[in-house]
Q: What sequence folds into this?
RNA sequence: GUAGCCAUAGCUCAGCUGGUUAGAGCAUCAGAUUGUGGUUCUGAGGGUCGUGGGUUCGAACCCCAUUGGUUACCCCA
């Protein structure tokens, strides 16, 4: 027997039964909270037209889009076109004659595309949630996969800050229900970053500046300044940056400090006002760990307002487990202007890793089958089968062992599959129309009638 | 795209500065135990040491290439 080499693509994973159960536990928790807040489900295709995705995630993002090769390239009548297209691609361009579809990179842009296509039928504000896989052609490493799930909730067609507030509360509620303590929900505002950029030579510098200051806690102040110097900032501008990065203290102190620095700027004023609203409006009961972090930038360049980032507990070096923000005009990219929106996303795969490391999955997650009927022969198993079907009718998950083998084996099977109850019907029980029920966790057993079994509380 | 580390039984790994026939634990199967598991004991199967080449009297070990995995940078969930 030759060993066939089998495998799955880099950065993808199979999920065995135990893992799927645990993942579903996370999905269900998130879905329930989304529904509680009035969001409705939506699904979009795995692939989109390449044009829909390109240019939405920045240059780095574009490189990470998985492109799908067109079919029919070997058709003789297309062969010259295909060759020319390939030449184009080698030069770093995209060519529709070679690839015109791509796997989706996130859920937000496909959602914007959906809203643009259906804005006449939708009633606004439109609140949707979406739980689907996305694909990125990244190098896999810890907490980073090429196929992973996002759980998004977005509201479009509303400028109200109430939406931001609700989305922040969703973060709290989901993480609390999952038992994840010590996570951080950091917020910032793109307009504050814009104001900073305007003080440092122009709004168009915002992305450069944001990318650099985002690295503060990783590489330190001096290196951030070095990096910005090479990007063309002068000493005076670096001074402003240094002051900005030096802002510390609690949320109120941070707001005062940033107000001194950029409060005179129009964008700055607006951004600060909105952040202030969120900090003060935040209801007390959840005792939120809402943290203002002026270095928070977030890469996706469609954000224009508040930005969120949910960070894993610091003892787990996995970074961000969710993120989101406000975008003024996402559908404008698809020809439908003036539909503002705001949304958040949960990274389920990373949340899973966090929960696994912190041992947060409840034991009940693992219980699949509740009852195993032992197989003790043809007539015995007939009786067992009939009882089993009645139990199934009462919504009890059960199974009959598939062949008549030694007890030993049947017990071990039950143990391995975490089945809490075994039901034994042998010749004796068959005769007196009873059955022996054994609690495998406690080791106790009793003989009861069929009727008692059907009313048993598993 | 750049860099480091790893690859030995189904799984986790050991294997001395290169030296006969490559080991352990777990798992699997069989028996002790024909209607009562989880413990224990006994035994068995299972490896062209990722692949290809080179150095050597001799390679799991050294060198080169290649494939796969993993971690970090970039970027990100």
A:
């Amino acid at each position: 027997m030759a060993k066939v080499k089998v495998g799955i693509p880099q950065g993808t994973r199979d999920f065995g039964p135990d893992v799927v159960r645990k993942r579903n536990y996370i999905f269900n928790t998130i879905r329930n909270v989304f529904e509680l807040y009035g969001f409705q489900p939506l699904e979009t295709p795995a692939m989109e037209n390449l044009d829909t995705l390109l240019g939405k995630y920045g240059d780095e993002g574009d490189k990470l889009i998985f492109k799908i090769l067109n079919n029919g390239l070997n058709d003789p009548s297309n062969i010259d076109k295909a060759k020319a297209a390939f030449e184009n691609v080698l030069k770093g361009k995209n060519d529709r004659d070679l690839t015109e579809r791509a796997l989706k990179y996130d859920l937000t842009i496909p959602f914007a595309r959906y809203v643009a296509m259906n804005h006449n039928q939708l009633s606004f504000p439109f609140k949707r949630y979406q739980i689907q896989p996305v694909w990125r052609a990244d190098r896999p490493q810890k907490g980073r996969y090429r196929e992973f799930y996002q759980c998004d909730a977005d509201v479009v067609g509303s400028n109200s800050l109430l939406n931001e507030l609700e989305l922040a509360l969703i973060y709290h509620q989901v993480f609390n229900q999952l038992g994840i303590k010590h996570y951080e929900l950091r917020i910032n505002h793109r307009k504050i970053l814009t104001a900073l950029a305007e003080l440092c030579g122009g709004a168009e510098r915002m992305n450069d500046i944001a990318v650099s200051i985002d690295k503060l806690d990783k590489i330190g102040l001096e290196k951030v300044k070095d990096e910005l110097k090479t990007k063309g900032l002068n000493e005076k501008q670096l001074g402003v940056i240094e002051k900005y990065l030096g802002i510390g203290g609690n949320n109120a102190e941070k707001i005062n400090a940033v107000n001194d620095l950029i409060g005179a700027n129009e964008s700055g004023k607006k951004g600060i006002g909105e952040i202030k609203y969120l900090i003060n409006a935040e209801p007390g009961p959840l005792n939120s760990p809402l943290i203002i972090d002026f270095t928070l930038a977030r890469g996706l360049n469609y954000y224009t307002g508040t930005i969120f980032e949910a960070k894993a507990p610091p003892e787990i070096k996995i970074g961000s487990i969710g993120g989101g923000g406000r975008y003024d005009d996402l559908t404008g990219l698809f020809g439908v202007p003036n539909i503002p929106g705001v949304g958040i996303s949960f990274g389920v795969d990373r949340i899973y890793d966090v929960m696994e490391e912190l041992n947060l999955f409840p034991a009940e997650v693992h219980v699949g089958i509740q009852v195993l009927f032992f197989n003790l022969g043809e007539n015995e198993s007939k009786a067992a089968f009939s009882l089993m079907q009645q139990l199934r009718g009462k919504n009890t998950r059960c199974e009959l062992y598939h062949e008549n083998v030694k007890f030993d084996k049947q017990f071990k099977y039950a143990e391995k599959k975490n089945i809490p109850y075994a039901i034994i019907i042998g010749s004796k029980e068959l005769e007196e129309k009873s059955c022996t029920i054994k609690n495998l966790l406690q080791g106790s057993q009793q003989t009861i009638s069929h009727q008692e079994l059907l009313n048993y509380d598993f």
